[in-house]
Description:
Number of helices: 19
Largest sheet: 5 strands, parallel
Structural class: alpha/beta
Radius of gyration: 23 Å
Distance between the termini: 37 Å
Strand content: 15-25%
Low-confidence stretches: 37-45, 65-76, 383-424
Mean pLDDT: 75
Number of domains: 3
Number of strands: 17
Amino acid sequence: MSINKTKEAASYISKLYWRTSNLMLANQGIIEELRRDTLYSNDKVISKNSIEDKLVGIFKNNLSHGFMSRFTQGSDKVSPHQLYKESYESFSKVLKVDDIKDNPYVKNIDLKNVSIKKSKIEYTTISLRKGEITPSDIERYDEKFNLNYIVGIYDENYDSPTLTENGQTWMNLVPSEFETMDKPIENAFGNVLVFGLGLGYYQYMISLKNNVEKITIVEKNPIVIRLFEDFILPQFEFKDKISIIKGDLFKLFSGDFVNKFDYCFIDTWFGRNDGLTSYLKLRKPSKEIHIKVDYWLEDGFKATVVSNMLLALYMFACLEEPIEKIADVTPPDALQNPASDMIYLKCVNYFLTKNIDLLTEKDVQDLISNDSVIHEIIYFEQFDISTVFDKSVVSSTNKLHSSLNHNENEYKWKKNKKKKKKKR
Length: 424
């Protein structure tokens, strides 16, 4: 392994990584922080100055006590105000309730009578107040490699139609649901395969497209299928386009089945945390598939890969840490999402097998924005490093492997060293 870098490239990696890590940590609790401090009111929309003040405070705290306090060197520091200016100038946007109510699904599909006796699926509404803060989109990198996380602020009170299962929100009609499906709706054409049913929002929206001829839905939950067929599908204008198969994503997601269609969309997870694990499992069989496949929240999953690439590059190229130190690092969001730790493992192993020249900022940009590199990391399997590296590196790198125990259904991880030390 060799990462040949200049001071210019190393400084740029450090800047990107410092900024990304702080934004990631801030995003994890930003909405809760803002709500807890009751910065919004029923009388007016929250001001951007209030958001900036709160964010700057969070960034300062991260720098002093957070994850980055272990690594950030004086020359690499960016002021919290500069960080806000570079990354959060478009942090918030106003969500117009009239636009939400004008959505075709919201206008035409009535969910009030949706119910199935003896099931744990229930219809309710979530009351969102004027000035309420809500996620509007997922984390994603922009063209300047800022990790952006946009929140929306409602301009009027809004009762969001919601279905819950076992008390957990299954789907509700809010802008974040709409906006994260805009691209897959645009991409759908011809004979479409959809894994996952939910409230049928995506299926309804693509059924309105003239260039969509047929929609085959795969759903494993019979109660969800019954709910959709009894209450929602009869309200579709183009219900004849729809057919449903009771089946499991992981059993049917193969070239033999999927390649019969023109386009495929997958949405079987509640959110980014549980979705990342499923996404990693699906990328391997996707090699057999020759049609366009979109995954709900995929931009967020790719942002997780890029964030972990920056962490690995920062350790290798900037701090020039020995492999033992690199093996002991826990990514900022790994405690909430163990699959992210698996991605960090893949990034480290990937860089251990490559010779990379990073001489300019553009070289760094080209590396972390390269879809083929991102996919190669996702596909990356554990390997026998003893045939490549000396014993000291093998011993240290094995710490990375031993911290994770992969089985067919999930990534399990053992307690890290820090927790053990605390118990002592």
